[in-house]
Design a protein that fits this description.
binds ligand LKXUNLCO; alpha+beta; 30% helix; binds fe (ii) ion; 4-stranded antiparallel beta sheet; single chain; 14 strands; Jelly Rolls; 8-stranded mixed beta sheet; globular; binds 2-oxoglutaric acid
């Protein structure tokens, strides 16, 4: 149920922050007060808004790849080409049952529809596990302008830990979604790895490419002035690979490496959006591209998305793979401990591609 708060209760920006961030109402709670104008702290600088450099979807579009094509070498090539040229692609006929996707979307709505007292049990301050966190925006203390998004972030440690600490209304669905996607994830990593001369996804490589998994449930409520803010600001993911399930609303935009234009990623029913993350860019010595993306706020619809961040283990040391630099190629990244890299990412506001400079030689 929507909270019965009137917009007049906010006489200054600090009260909005208190309501949204500290009391755990999130932007969903704010949106449901019926607020008519965007509070000042959500107004993004002009250059961060998604109003310039749009491109017509018929001129530039990220590839949609059918994974059921019987010619597997064609599928592998299309995936590796997309990873090099776009860093983003969509996959259809990926083998993950439709019911699993529908269930996790329904579970996402169920979680965000919980009363604030329930959701706020999972804020950083109150959560009984550091692996479960309900929050808003990206890094509210570091950001000059806040983002119009709430999230629940679930870091997988074990089935036992998840069953104890993940919220009841979504834990089974999130776990099933994560588990049932693993075959597809392995296939994608095998294709990407072979093209880097990685012969097989053995234990060491599995641990590097997919040693840890985080599932986020994202909620973007209706926004009173969507043109003045963003759902998520310009960033690249710090994962090795991100598997994103989006609903039918749309709003995700990717920066084209070829033109610099912002290209919309149109919702394709039953598909996943796949993107290369910074860890894979580093491991591939820059061959695969972790690309800037951002999400538009929406004035008429609530939107959800459910990314699975497939990552190295926190304690893994990542750097250009020996297989990649064996041919004499100069490494452009140094070795970094993956958790140091992620901590650096979370410490600052979104700033496009700059995170990866942390690992540049
Ligand atoms: C939220 O909006 C987002 C999120 C994203 C995410 C994109 C990704 O690619 S997520 C995948 C990241 N990879 C991993 O999580 C796997 C490896 N994990 C680790 O190495 C560790 O678990 C850790 C993340 C480094 C946390 O280690 P720990 O020692 O427990 O560190 P903390 O002190 O708890 O946290 C450090 C710092 O980060 C903030 N933080 C931690 N987790 C999250 C989270 N899930 N969401 C947001 N922020 C998080 C935490 O608050 C700490 O900051 P302080 O200022 O409080 O010190 C993309 C786009 C988005 O808009
Ligand atoms: O919601 C989306 O479409 C993308 C979200 C995203 O980029 C992220 O969570 O890292
Ligand atoms: Fe992202």
């Amino acid at each position: 149920m929507a909270p019965t708060v009137s917009t007049t209760q906010f006489s200054d920006p600090a009260e909005v922050t208190e309501f949204v961030v500290n009391q755990g109402n999130g932007v969903k709670g704010l949106s449901e007060t019926g607020i008519k104008a965007l509070p000042d702290q959500y107004i993004q600088p002009f250059e961060e808004r998604l109003i310039n450099k749009f491109v017509n979807e018929t001129d530039e579009a990220i590839p949609v790849i059918d994974m059921s094509n019987p010619d597997e070498s064609k599928v592998a090539k299309a995936i590796c080409d997309a990873a090099e040229k776009w860093g983003f692609f969509q996959v259809i006929n990926h083998g993950v049952p439709l019911a699993v996707l529908d269930n996790v979307k329904a579970a996402t709505h169920r979680f965000f529809n919980l009363p604030v007292e329930e959701k706020s049990k999972y804020t950083k301050e109150k959560s009984l596990s550091t692996n479960v966190r309900f929050g808003t925006s990206f890094s509210p203390r570091a950001e000059k302008a806040l983002e119009w998004k709430d999230y629940l972030s679930l870091f997988f440690v074990s089935e036992t830990e998840a069953s104890q600490f993940w919220p009841d209304v979504c834990k089974n669905e999130a776990l099933e979604y994560m588990n049932k996607s693993k075959t597809m994830v392995r296939k994608l990593l095998e294709y990407l790895g072979k093209n880097l001369n990685v012969k097989e996804l053995d234990e060491t490589k599995e641990s590097l490419f997919m040693g840890s998994i985080r599932v986020n449930l994202n909620y973007y409520p209706i926004c009173p002035n969507p043109d003045l803010t963003v759902g998520v600001g310009r960033h690249s993911d710090v994962s090795s690979l991100t598997i994103l399930l989006q609903d039918q609303i749309g709003g995700l935009h990717v920066r084209s490496l070829a033109s610099g234009n912002w290209v919309h990623v149109p919702p394709v029913p039953r598909s996943f959006v796949i993107n290369i993350g910074d860890a894979m860019q580093i491991l591939s010595n820059g061959r695969y591209k972790s690309v800037e993306h951002r999400v538009l706020a929406n004035g008429s619809n609530n939107r959800i998305s459910v990314p699975i961040f497939v990552n190295p283990k926190p304690e893994s040391v990542i750097g250009p793979l020996p297989e990649v630099i064996a041919n004499g190629e100069e490494p452009i990244y140094r070795d970094v401990v993956y958790s140091d890299y992620v901590r650096y990412f979370f410490k600052k506001a979104h700033d496009g591609k700059k995170t990866v400079d942390f690992a540049k030689i």
